[in-house]
Write a structure and sequence with these properties.
Structural class: alpha/beta
Number of strands: 13
Distance between the termini: 39 Å
Shape: globular
Strand content: 15-25%
Helix content: 25-40%
Order of helices and strands: EHEHEHEHEHEHEEHEHEHEHEHEHHHH
Number of helices: 15
């Protein structure tokens, strides 16, 4: 079986899955078609790596005919984000009756009312709806993706859970966890939709309540000066460390030294791969229910805590709960690690995808997995119009 994945480029979050696919067995031939070189801004964020040794990578912009042949003639093709650069060949494949998958985050992150746009509906018809009776499935990279696509009546009965599968396995850490002084970590770009100010505000509340803790806020971005001022104004210099930008490997080392990881992105966060990484690093995660990864990965009270509707008050309550019950932190982190290591990881996703495809190709109805990659994606209602009025409602 030949399986081809088409997308803009591989980043460090996709690489583990691609490697897992390339190593899955002699009877599976895997290729990744990269449609553009990675942009400079992504390279500057540490997303790039030397892919010259990856034999499965085919660059569309260097080997166009070979890439087209793989797209049109592979047994299975996965289409990620390509920004319409290969529109004609993509349409030809999806119309062919050969097994194909769309891999997508939300299409109406800024509000589902936008689906009524006539121009937008025509585009969605050509991209998705007209293939609804073809063997084309949707891999939902986020818990609210199925809801968006249900609005346009696409992929009926063919929407499956998916995600990003970074590999955070390792042991190097910036500090030892598990002592009386609890270590908290926040990581990401310092931008509005990720709400890093929640981390500073909760640090002030914890200090006022007399908790013994330290906090690392790992990342860079336009809100850095504002956060620096907040730390000074609130007298948190001894407790809160704004590390600045770090490489992906350095970010992981902070997670591995943390007891608690704070994930505060709002509904504009399509997935949020730092949640996978923090869970695999053994952190007890406090996370927003609005971000795509959270309803898929976290089971409230067992492998993490979830706060609702972007509420800072609920977020603070959940963080304080963990510090009030320190005996729960390690078991919760262990359960989080097991969730990633046993189910939501690249090797398991690759195996489930191949199993699903083999069963379909043999004429069988694939057996649904139990709440992991390739299991049915339920239609979960995302935040509504009133919620979007409380945010700077645009992607950054």
């Amino acid at each position: 079986m030949r399986i081809t994945f088409v997308s803009n480029y591989i980043n460090h979050h996709q690489l583990p899955f691609c490697k897992a696919m390339s190593e899955i067995g002699d009877d599976v031939e895997f290729f990744f078609i990269q449609t553009i070189p990675m942009e400079e801004k992504r390279l500057n964020m540490g997303w790039g790596f030397d892919d010259s040794a990856l034999s499965f990578v085919v660059r569309y912009y260097e080997e166009e005919e070979r890439a087209k042949d793989l797209i049109l003639n592979s047994d299975v093709v996965l289409f990620g984000w390509t920004e319409d650069r290969i529109w004609d060949v993509e349409q030809k494949r999806l119309s062919s009756g050969k097994l194909s998958f769309r891999v997508s985050e939300r299409i109406y992150r800024e509000g589902q009312w936008k689906f009524i746009s006539p121009r937008g509906l025509m585009k969605k018809y050509n991209e998705h709806f007209k293939f609804r009776n073809k063997p084309v499935y949707l891999l939902c990279t986020g818990a609210y993706v199925a809801s968006d696509f249900s609005l346009i009546k696409s992929f009926p009965g063919k929407m499956l859970k998916w995600g990003y599968f970074p590999d955070a396995a390792g042991s190097e850490a910036v500090a030892q966890r598990g002592g009386d002084k609890k270590r908290l970590c926040w990581a990401g770009r310092l931008i509005d939709l990720k709400h890093p100010e929640f981390a500073v505000k909760v640090a002030a509340a914890l200090k006022a309540a007399g908790f013994d803790f330290s906090m690392d806020i790992v990342g860079d971005g336009p809100l850095k000066d504002r956060l620096t001022d907040m730390v000074k104004e609130l007298g948190l210099e001894a407790s809160v460390n704004l590390t600045g930008g770090k490489t992906p490997e350095e970010v992981l080392s902070y997670m591995r030294g943390a007891d608690i990881f704070l994930f505060t992105s709002n509904y504009l966060e399509g997935w949020g791969a730092v949640v996978n990484e923090a869970m695999q690093s053994g952190c007890a995660v406090v996370a927003s229910n609005e971000a795509g990864a959270v309803p898929f990965l976290i089971e409230e009270g067992k492998n993490g805590l979830i706060y609702k509707d972007g509420s800072y008050e609920d977020f603070e309550h959940k963080v304080r709960f963990l510090l009030d019950h320190p005996d729960m932190i390690k078991p919760m982190g262990t359960a989080a690690m097991e969730t990633i290591n046993n189910k939501w990881n690249a090797k398991n996703a690759a195996a489930e995808l191949v199993r699903f495809c083999r069963e379909l190709e043999s004429g069988k109805t694939p057996v649904a997995t139990d709440n992991g990659p390739m299991s049915p994606a339920a239609v979960l209602t995302p935040p509504g119009f009133s919620r979007t009025l409380k945010e700077k409602n645009h992607l950054e």
